Amino acid sequence: MTKHSSKKHLVDLSNDLAKIRDAFAETAIDVKNKASEAFSQSVEDVKDKSTDFKDNIEAFVAEKPFKSLLLAMLSGAFLGAFMRRGRRISSRHRE
Fold first, then answer.
1. Which end of the chain is more exposed for a tag (fewer CB within 10 A), N or C?
2. Lowest mean pLDDT among 2-11, 30-39, 49-58, 62-71
3. What is the pLDDT of residues 37-60, one digit of tens each?
4. Of 47, 48, 29, which Cα lies nearest the Cα of 37?
5. What is the pLDDT of residue 23?
6. Strand, helix or coil at 95?
7. CB proximity list for 8: less than 8 A, separation 6 or greater
């Protein structure tokens, strides 16, 4: 193999490596863009579902105010009892 032929192979190899590098860079950009689009769509879906949930609760409260009040009071009593029980259990573990 001549000196000229050896340099040509190095240049060819260098060009091939540059093409591979560019292909990886393009793929990375595509993956990043697709992930970003999927995340944005997920955020929009969560916003839509939370808005629907809020609207359903508002409609329920408007249609059944006394039932809503009763549910809120029972939920508060349950959470209060649950939290008191949790404090008692955690204070026993400290002793």
1. C
2. 2-11
3. 999 999 999 999 999 999 999 999
4. 29
5. 96
6. coil
7. none
